[in-house]
Amino acid sequence: MGAYERPGVEPLALALQDRHGLNVNMLLWCLWCGAYFREPGELVIRKAIDQTHRWNHEVTKPLRAARTALKFVFPGADIERQGALRLKIKDDELAAERIELDTLERLALDALAAASPPGGTERARRAVALYARLAGAARTPGFTVSLLEELIANTLDLVESKTP
Fold this sequence. Notes:
Layout: H1 9-20, H2 24-36, H3 42-69, H4 79-111, H5 121-134, H6 145-159
């Protein structure tokens, strides 16, 4: 089971994304970097944000919007064909997210030295907090650090043993 599939992680990660503007892949990447690499500093996290921003806004988000729109029945549309289209778009959205994760993984491998020993809970905590600050999440209504702490608590032991 991946970190995202653990109980409670998906709704929390999606809430951080939908309500506070954070990218789920970036959150998981920060946790993974903290577990396996030397702490990613501001320059590396900004580079990760830059590398994923355009892809996310021009590819992933439009696919997500189309998939979400297809949850509703359109008058006159064939419901079965609409459902099949929704599933195809969902597969395409997941493929787009995988490309984004691959981009982030390459950045970590190129820019960060491996940590010895692995398992840096504090490194992961600082990386996630820095990403949230740089992304402006702290300025959104209802954001608290406890949301990040809950995500860390629910994912880190698994993230420390796997790649994103």
